[in-house]
Design a protein that fits this description.
CATH topology of the largest domain: Alkaline Phosphatase, subunit A
Structural class: alpha/beta
Distance between the termini: 55 Å
Number of strands: 13
Order of helices and strands: HHEHEEEEHEEEHHHHEHHEEEEH
Shape: globular
CATH architecture of the largest domain: 3-Layer(aba) Sandwich
Largest sheet: 7 strands, mixed
Number of helices: 11
């Protein structure tokens, strides 16, 4: 076969390749999967993002006692407020952190920073935009070849969104956004339903096409300007990634499908029924991990700035739109209302963590939570403030993580209070130097088994976890 790059419909080709590669995962009952695993405990990573920050009433406000998001106290002597107390049964499985943020984002409006939550990149407030590889994708480079899916990228809104308005937490090594899936039925079908009997033949065809495409591309590159060479190189990076996926897919195409019980799932659910939708998304992540379909998952619960169907999630607790809650804290019961929404998220997240803990790990010692490291948080805290990120680290005890603590690295009097107009917290001069969040990321990567001392400009690690 000979394919001329100049005449190739790249959108058609990539779409065709995507279909060929979008095969269901097949459970690893064969010796192939065992040979690919060098650690008796298969380590997993999941990262979750909540937009719009968290309730942070000032200490003199009566609402501070019950509705401040961060716990009261520190170390192992702390008390959850009503925002997080659904996690009390899992107290020994979680660590709450404050006083961490990405240096490149600290003086930028909080709604611009979901893009860099897992990358730490200087994506900026406006103008030129460039991102970098996200934490999950760096880990996926190390373990993704051991499972049917290198990673599972999910969000409530789906797709990629826009620069500084991401619908996805995941970015590849070139800094390109990886589209997130948001339709439960399609997620389930991708994981567990075999619908393509002709996949093996098309995989072989794709491999041949890729070989010819790369040969033609190398020849073409010599005729291009430096700018066009850079454009071509970025394109070829995606081709190389596709080539890797083609080769990996060959190993799985004839393996039997996993069997899962899904009678309890409502796969046609949408975010307009928010509690059931969120519960279904968490359940799909649980099933993907339980069947070893993937070991890397990201789920962005919502887009920043009230854009997208994810703003409906607050309807689970009787409010109209989620983002409005952050602006109405100056109203009577404003903090309580915002905190009630955060409590809802804690309830569903706690349900998910609890299920991981209750499930013996078929691929390692202990339960699934012991071998799964989970990060839940936001790139803003007080009203639009890109500092002092609210973070929950959970699981990973078989990786050496110790929990049951609140690690407060933040200022003695953190920014907060209702916005009454005028200067917002993010516009004020920085009076406390947060620890780089990437210090935590390097700690996580190392204990996940990735040999690295650097990521996103870290200045060290965090031994306290």
């Amino acid at each position: 076969m000979s394919i001329n790059l100049a005449s190739l419909d790249r959108r058609r080709f990539l779409r065709g390749t995507g279909i060929a590669l979008a095969l269901p995962w097949f459970e690893t009952f064969s010796s192939l999967a065992a040979a690919n695993t060098t650690d008796s405990n298969r380590r997993r990573l999941a990262c979750f993002y909540m937009p719009d920050g968290v309730p942070m009433p000032l200490t003199e406000d009566p609402a501070h006692k019950d509705w401040a998001w961060f716990p009261h106290g520190s170390g192992r002597d702390f008390r959850f407020t009503k925002c997080l107390d659904p996690l009390e049964p899992l107290r020994d499985e979680v660590t709450i952190l404050s006083g961490l943020s990405h240096p490149a984002a600290r003086s930028i409006h909080g709604h611009s920073n979901a893009d860099q939550f897992l990358t730490g990149a200087a994506t900026g407030a406006a103008g030129d935009y460039r991102n970098s590889i996200s934490l999950d994708q760096l880990f996926a480079e190390h373990v993704g070849d051991q499972t049917r899916f290198s990673s599972l990228v999910l969000s409530t809104d789906g797709g990629t969104g826009t620069p500084r308005g991401a619908h996805t937490m995941s970015f590849n090594r070139s800094g390109r956004a990886i589209p997130a899936e948001h339709r439960p039925k399609l997620i389930f079908d991708m994981l567990f339903v075999k619908s393509d009997e002709d996949a093996a033949r098309r995989l072989a065809l794709s491999q041949s096409a890729l070989d010819d495409l790369m040969a033609d591309a190398k020849s073409l590159r010599q005729t291009l300007s430096s700018h066009d060479q850079a454009t071509l190189d970025e394109y070829l990076q995606s081709v190389r990634e596709t080539e890797i996926r083609v080769e990996k897919a060959k190993r799985w195409v004839n393996m039997p499908l996993p069997t899962v019980d899904v009678d309890h799932l409502k796969l046609d659910i949408t975010p307009e029924e928010p509690r059931t939708f969120l519960r279904t998304m968490f359940e799909l992540i649980y099933l993907a991990f339980k069947t070893d379909s993937t070991r890397v998952v990201t789920y962005q619960l919502g887009r920043e700035n009230a854009i997208g169907v994810s703003d409906y999630l607050a309807r689970a607790v009787g409010f109209n739109l989620t983002h409005q809650l952050t602006h109405n804290t100056k109203e009577p019961d404003g903090w309580k209302n915002f905190g009630t929404y955060c409590r809802f998220l804690s309830e569903e997240y706690g349900r998910f963590l609890g299920k991981l803990k209750e499930t013996p790990d078929a691929y390692g010692a202990g339960n699934m939570l012991d071998n799964t490291l989970l990060l839940f948080g936001s790139a803003s805290s007080a009203f639009h403030l890109s500092r002092n990120y609210p973070l929950i680290l959970a699981g990973g005890k078989n990786m050496g993580f110790k929990h049951g603590q609140y690690l407060n690295y933040g200022p003695e009097k953190p920014a907060g209070g209702a916005w009454l107009g005028g200067t917002e917290p993010w516009q004020k001069e920085v009076d406390h130097e947060d620890i780089p969040l990437s210090n935590l990321f390097v700690t996580m990567l190392q204990r996940l088994g990735v040999e690295t001392d650097t990521f996103a400009g870290n200045t060290g690690t965090i031994a306290d976890v």
